[in-house]
Amino acid sequence: MAQASRRDRTAISREDFDAVVFDLDGVITRTAEVHFLAWKRMFDDYLSEWARREGRKQEPFGSQDYQHHVDGKPRYEGVKAFLASRGIELPYGTPEDGPDKETVCGLGNRKNEIFRQLLREGGVRVFEHAVDLVRRLRDKGFGVAVVTSSKNCKDVLEAAGIEDLFDVRVDGLVAARDGLAGKPAPDTFVAAAERLGSRPERVAVFEDAESGVEAGHRGHFRLVVGVDRVGHGPELARSGADVVLTDLAEVEVRA
Question: What whole-number distance in Å separates Cα of residue 25 and Cα of residue 158?
Fold first, then answer.
């Protein structure tokens, strides 16, 4: 079979698709930069404490750490993955752990406190072309969902003024309630497709995280679009993206 042209691969038509699923941070909203700052502040503080205690230097948390170990994953899984990359092992703890507790959950909760503080101080900006794409899809009758591992999804959408933009929301709270595995497992994307009354082979996924792209690929979605905001297009392609875009204005919506 001849490969579809790039134009066809960046077009969403009613003939081939029923619905579209979007990641939130880094695709719709510019909260990825806020998440990165929160992760960096939390991890850099912890690594400094750890280095003083253990007498072994640790490099600060960087953008590559964020992309490879944290971005797109449930918060506690991100903590665990990054610490493992630095050879640090902590007790997992419980989600009720306070932010001062030295456990995976405690560090995750510490990061969330920092994130919410930054959110209150700076608000939320959106990617205008992404919001425009969602509106164009809605106008043509496509179902649209937002899927994120964040448990702050509702707050972020409200802060950005787009809380009514999506038909379905599958976030970290829904995943915990329904026992859905986080990305790179495809469970949350599949759940969103089902809630939109469709199935993966009729749904497109837009993701900026390598773990999210892998989830779309593993879920056998008809189209997985990697959204490259930070120059990691090759990594998105290797993770399973069918096409990589830097600007969602390139996407055509066909009735």
Answer: 14
**DSSP-based three-state secondary structure for 143:** strand
Q: Which of 255, 237, 254 is nearest to 246 (CA)?
A: 237
Nearest residue to 35 via CA among 104, 116, 103: 116
pLDDT of 1: 36
pTM over the 0.70 mark: yes
Q: Are 244 and 235 in contact (CB under 8 A)?
A: no
Query: From the centroid of its chain, how far is CA 78?
Result: 12
For the chain, which domains are there?
6-30+125-254 (3.40.50.1000), 33-122 (1.10.150)
Catalytically active residues are: 23, 25
Query: Which burial class, exposed, middle or buried, applies to 167 when counting CB atoms under 10 A from its CB (0-12, 13-18, 19+)?
Result: middle
Cβ of 126: how many Cβ atoms within 10 Å? 18
Query: Residue 69 gets which letter from DSSP?
Result: I
What are the structure tokens assigned to 221, written together? Answer: 């979605």
Q: Whole-angstrom Cα distance, residue 53 to residue 29?
A: 38
Give the model confidence (pLDDT) of 202-231 as tens digits: 999 999 999 999 999 999 999 999 999 989
